[in-house]
Amino acid sequence: MATPTGGIVGQRRWYYPALAAPGILWLLFLFILPFYAIAAVAFGGRDQIFGLPIPAWNPLEWQYETFSTTAGELFASSGLQAQFLRTLVYVVISVTICLVVGYPVAYYIARYGGRLKVLLLTLMIAPFWMSYLMRMLAWVNLLAVKPDDPGLFNRLLLLTPFVNHPINWSSGPVSHMTVILGLVYGYIPFFILPLYAALDRIDKSQLEASRDMGANPASTFWRVTLPLSRQGILAGAVIITLPMFGDYYTPNLMTASPENTMMGNAIDLALQGQGKQPQGAAITLLLSAFIGALMIYYLVSVSRAAKEAVR
Amino acid sequence: MVFHPRDPNHRPVSRRDFLRRSLAAGVALPTSAAILAACGTDGTPSPDQGDEDIKPRFGTLDNPVTLQTYKDNPPIDSNLEPESGPLVIYNWEQYMWKRVLKDFGKKYNVEVKYETFYNMEQAIQKFQTGEVDVDVFFPTIDYVPKLAASKLIQPLNHDYIPNISNLWPVMQDPYYDQGSLYTVPYTIYHTGMAWRTDIVPMEVDDVAAMSNPYEIYWNADYAGKVGIYDVYREALSLGMYRDLADKTDLNTADPAVIDAARDRLIELNDLVGVKTTIDGAYAGVPEGKFGLHQSWSGDIQAGPWYTSDPKKEAGLLRYYWPARDGFGGTIDNDTYAIPTNAKNPVLAHLFLNFMMDEFNAIKNWTWVGYQVPFSAVNPDTIFEESYPGLEGWFVWDYGAPAGKHWDNLKSTIVTEEDFDIGKRATGLDIDVDTLWQDAYADFKAGA
Amino acid sequence: MTTAEATLPREAAASPRVGRLRAFFSNPWGKPRLLSVWTWLYIIWTIAPVLIAVQFSFNDGRSRSTFQGFSLQWYESIWNEASANFDDTLLPALIQSLKLALLTMPIATTLGVGLAIGLARWRGRGSGAANFLMLFPLVTPEIVMGASMFLIFSNLYEIKLGTGAQLLGHVTFSLSYVVIVTRGRLFAIGRDYEEAAMDLGSSPADAIRRVLLPLLAPAILSSFFIVFAISIDDFVISQYLCVQECTTIPIKIYNAARNAGNPSLNALATIMMVLSLLSITVAVLILRWFNRRQGTGRSAVEDFARFEI
């Protein structure tokens, strides 16, 4: 029963931070500090023989030429700008589709799961234990067109009256749809799960109260459920939007076509090129700055909510 | 892969894919004029230039170059006893047949280890930091001058490698390393076009008769079926050949020319929705995924194995190198070199000599699929009569009716004369190289 | 209520079938059928392509789009040297993936649980920032993480790229997931038990060790398996931090999908999927076992799906 001031209470004060310390240090050295390496490479020089980057660790020695050229490209009509705008369009469309497709699913399982809830949930979680790449690969195979075989998906479409000849999914305007399909397919589980978690937590009695007061289902949804689920939608949206901005493997797998490349592809190409690592780092910085604002908004609001929750 | 050549599933695998996959860098050397001007030399041999001249010397066909030698990086002495090994080879994955390595090991009673790298840049970095301890390395010719200048590879002692005389003269004294001071050539190949006649209904003669065969890519009839290599030098040079044919300078530093090539590629994309791949030639075309694809000669040579039914489809494959009719084309080779800090330099020299023995080199060819520049390789006889001791091992016999070969692949064989007419892509100065890479990045961005 | 009763008789007069159909769809007390259909369509759309891919892993031919008969040849090509399509790079990739996952599990879980508990109970300055820091990796694009680690390893830390570097990368991004999962459970448990223990005189360390950790056990064990599933599926970071002899299954799939792939890819991916499935199943079963012992109202799967973000 004793609580001497210097003893257990004192220990209490530093104990928890100490427990968190290893994790924090790990993240500091392996997550935060590497960001500094990007800056050091972006603002550094390169070896004239092999083109290897010479990072400038001292901010006073930073050279801004590469960065400003790259940034300039972003604001002028150029390949990089085209990629950036295309990425923006892909992400906005994909996330919207994820929302439209995913919300009803999450809502249904949360609200009306009933006896099948466990089964539905299991099936909903299923994509998490299927490799992302394998799911993409599955689609690539379904869409692939060969001279003697239009592909399974085309064969299905040919059965409908709308489609008369096999569609080539990897070129032309259709290719954009293919990549968006890939993005939606890949990321939607990551949207639905947090959304489900939020919807599940909504107190059913509130919905019943709304019903008891005479609102029809549609009205209850718009005026009670939707606002309550806003945090969940936000969480799901941010969890897929920000990583999607850096996606490069989905376009590569789905179509491998220049007209579908995203910012991630620009970064990937630059980082692998001899002498282009400073440029790659510069593009990374620019991308991070762009999504940084979104990131910070989300993190602030969520961490505030989380801290209140566990207190 | 450990296939027996008589194994019906034996197939040479293209190592070009690993070579190019992460090697967007590829070739990066300054134009010779710029460098030579900077060095203050006129390209005439000048050994022992002195340790002050550490700039890489890049040669061209017009200005062949002798690489600098350094007093503190001498070749090994003659008449030394071979070490006890193990000999460590550092090469691209699957770019050398393990069986041939075993033969060497048996002959000299040493163990041979095969280490691989996926990325030339990383390999170079490992050399610089001294991380790797290997005895034989395989730089591409654009890196050779850089490695020599940085003293990362050692000059060869020709007393140990008499078999070098088996090579074609042009390969014994290449423009990028006159006198073969540091390197000897490994595989040779040219960059042409490969297609299947059921999608692109043209014969080689039809293509050769075009006003510029390179225009074949820019044909909307083949939309969705055209591919080029995902390698910036090869892709942009295609654009240049389209405009300039035989007048193309593969090592140009002129931004206008580079941008024009890029615009050509963008046009190509708009017209046919071109794909950039690394397996499009050795697998995509045989599989029917592509009708027409840029192709290294060794890639399509491996084609029959990748068709789903070689008896029906291998005969549909075609390969054409436009330089043969005066339209310009790229030809290239890989090299062997010995790192300065090799622990077994004598063994390494002996290995090079062993690999320049005809039989061993050709045996390696049957598995690797990429050709070797030997005088014994007569394009006519090697095809029909094969090589004594290796009958039926070559890929152009795969799936062919008994006693016959896939004649349509004969054009993939590189001849000595090809080296007189082919263009060489040498390294580029870092800044020039960046121009090329940026142009390619613009194309890849779908601008 | 009144609307339904008012409309039904009128519609029944118009056409019995339409009326019943409408009633079926618009019964306010029944399950909304439209949503139900939508959900099931979604599930089919998500899972069917994968099942097809699994089917092709048993393909008798080389095609990944035309089924030519049943055969186990592609599974054999992974380990059986005598098999026709033997590829000696597949098994090392599988082993590398497993190796990384198994090493990441204990490290990430230990650090993550400590971080979760610490963050949850930390009351002083810096807790907000630490929380912020922890959430950061969840929303960072993988290429940014991969590129930054690649650059700092090669240029500052002098860490050689390869398995070790990959391990560091895997732990880094798994950390946040462990914290999220653990924190959900921490919230459910509440502080009462620990507080009681400390009121009775134990130190925080003891309280955690003897009271909290046993209660947290399901979350900790679940984290283990979640980390396994995440790590085995990671692509970008593994690729960026690898130079040679550290190819994992996702890297192999990606490369081969862009090259001439054959169904041995599908076989590898199926194996990986089965392993992940087993791993998540074990996690869920553990949760269920603990739930039964402690009698919370929800099933384990629900619990699992409800983690706090």
Brief write-up:
The complex is a heterotrimer of chains A (311), B (447) and C (309). Chain B is α/β, with parallel strands linked by helices and 447 residues long.
Describe this entry's structure for a reader.
- The complex is a heterotrimer of chains A (311), B (447) and C (309).
- Chain A is mainly α.
- Chain A has a domain at 86-272: MetI-like fold.
- Chain A has helices at residues 8-42, 65-75, 79-112, 117-125, 132-143, 152-159, 174-200, 204-212, 217-228, 230-245, 249-254, 263-272, 277-310; strands spanning 45-46, 53-54.
- The radius of gyration of chain A is 25 Å and the shape is flat.
- Residues 1-6 of chain A have low confidence and may be disordered.
- Chain B is α/β, with parallel strands linked by helices.
- Chain B has two domains: 16-188 and 332-397, D-Maltodextrin-Binding Protein, domain 2 (3-Layer(aba) Sandwich), CATH 3.40.190; 191-331, 3-Layer(aba) Sandwich (D-Maltodextrin-Binding Protein, domain 2), CATH 3.40.190.10.
- Chain B contains 18 helices and nine strands.
- Chain B has helices spanning 16-21, 32-39, 98-108, 120-128, 144-149, 169-172, 204-208, 232-244, 255-272, 280-287, 297-301, 303-306, 310-313, 345-355, 358-368, 379-384, 418-421, 430-444, and strands spanning 87-92, 112-117, 136-137, 183-196, 226-229, 275-277, 292-296, 317-320, 330-337.
- Chain C is mostly helical.
- Chain C has two domains: 2-79, no CATH class; 90-305, MetI-like (MetI-like fold), CATH 1.10.3720.
- Chain C has helices at 2-14, 16-26, 33-56, 73-79, 90-121, 127-139, 142-157, 163-189, 192-199, 204-233, 236-240, 249-258, 264-294, 300-305.
- Chains in contact: A-B, A-C, B-C.
- The interface between A and C is large, with 120 and 106 residues.
